[in-house]
Hints:
Elements: H1 9-30, H2 36-60, H3 68-79, H4 86-99, E1 109-110, H5 116-127, H6 130-144, H7 158-166, H8 172-193, H9 197-214, E2 232-234, H10 237-242, H11 249-254, H12 263-269, E3 274-276, H13 277-283, E4 289-290
Parallel strand pairs: 1-4, 2-3
Helix pairs in contact: 1-2, 2-3, 2-4, 2-9, 4-7, 6-8, 6-9
Amino acid sequence: MREPYPVPATLNLAVIAIQVPMLLGCLALAAHTQGLALALVALAFGVVMNSVYSLIHEAEHGILLPGRNANDAAGVALALFFPAPFHLLRQGHLGHHLRNRSDDEAFDLWFEGESPAWKRAQLYGILTGFYWVVVVASNLAVLLCPGFLRRRYFEFDRPTAALLDSLNPRYFRIIRAEAAAALALHAGLIAALGVPWPRYAAVYFGFGLTWSALQYAHHFGTERHVTRGARNLWIGQPLDLLWLNHNWHRVHHENPTVPWPYLPRLGRQQEQERGWLVWAYLRMWRGPRRARERVENRFAGRLVA
């Protein structure tokens, strides 16, 4: 797919050059605001940081910059703002493309032998930002407990166990190094910008809540198929563009090596439908339902390279 859809390296670098100062500006403002003003800064930060995540997502697929080394270096640097180890995010996301809508990754369903209450807790945790908190907490977890990324601790939860089965041990050391770098970066930012840590956390949760809430909206209730089990959504042209066409999600799952500028054209050529993102999010509050159809993960146990 690379020939007709070249990686837009210059454009991506220009976007990064705009995004990073905006992030730092929002964090600097947090040192001088509180109450409603702080909430507005958190909202602005969440919008911009979701745009940054869209570029991290491009890097996960190797289509942010040409060449593996340059692409991964940019992905590592951007993921520090998440904050999370890029090589952990990348393996989790590429594994998602393999597990999508199988029994190993169906957060809107519960099966015989599973706890409906636990499945509801997982889904509502996604909807309320707790998922992001868990990802961020993994920075400390992998540093304090090197064996944390092992299946034996999560046998009780099939999706998490399947995720850990796909992690490649060759990246464990670099994941720990990136986790340490992320913690150091944010400690440095808090000190350099003079932001009280509760305000810093509040602004960051503006991102964490929106990012987490959107993570399953594109898959809830979709066909149980690894590539077709996604939907295209929209929220409004300015945000759709700022989030780098991330809402053309089914097009992306069907064409994961196509960079973001080309996704709308592909979707229109294929006459794919789009739904409203807000409505898709609200529908998820119905909670998980019982499922009788089984869809096995054909890539179970496969390590992410």
